[in-house]
Amino acid sequence: QVQLVESGGGLVQAGGSLRLSCAASGIIFRDNAMSWYRQAPGKQRELVATITSRGTTISGGSVKGRCTISRDNTKNTVYLEMNSLKPEDTAVYYCNARSVANTYVYNYWGQGTQVTVSS
């Protein structure tokens, strides 16, 4: 059974920092591209950042320049460090694992962790 468990969310003041973690199980972690998405109330889910299985990072643009995605394949964990947080960064942050095998796309989501940035 695939599980993606996010942690590290919470309430932070504007200008502060947070590090989110996502621990994966039930997948071959190193073969998956790992991403962080976020969804604010009344808005569509949007990509924050992706790190491929080879370690290439891609920014979704919404938090560009203020976040760093990284992964530790020995711990099956992906991280998202965010700084200079703004109230508009308030959202539920979701972890995503994606891999392709025999043309089939495997896509898994975590339950999400709430990040609230106060002004």
Description:
With 119 residues, the chain is an all-beta fold. The protein has no helices and eleven strands. The strands form two sheets. Strands 2, 4, 5, 6, 9, 10 and 11 form a seven-stranded mixed sheet that branches. Strand 5 and strand 6 form a beta hairpin. The chain is globular. It starts with a strand and ends with a strand. The model has no long low-confidence stretch (mean pLDDT 96).
Topology of this structure?
Layout: E1 3-7, E2 10-13, E3 18-25, E4 33-39, E5 46-51, E6 57-59, E7 67-72, E8 77-82, E9 91-101, E10 104-109, E11 113-118
Parallel strand pairs: 2-11
Antiparallel strand pairs: 1-3, 3-8, 4-5, 4-9, 5-6, 7-8, 9-10, 9-11
Which class do the helix and strand fractions yield? mainly beta
| Strand composition percent | over 45%
The ordered H/E elements are EEEEEEEEEEE
Ends distance: 40 Å
Number of helices: 0
Compute the number of strand runs: 11
Radius of gyration: 14 Å
Helix content: under 10%
The whole-number mean of residue pLDDT values reads 96
Give a quick rundown of the structure:
The chain is an all-beta fold.
List key phrases describing it.
119 residues, mainly beta, 4-stranded antiparallel sheet, 11 strands, globular
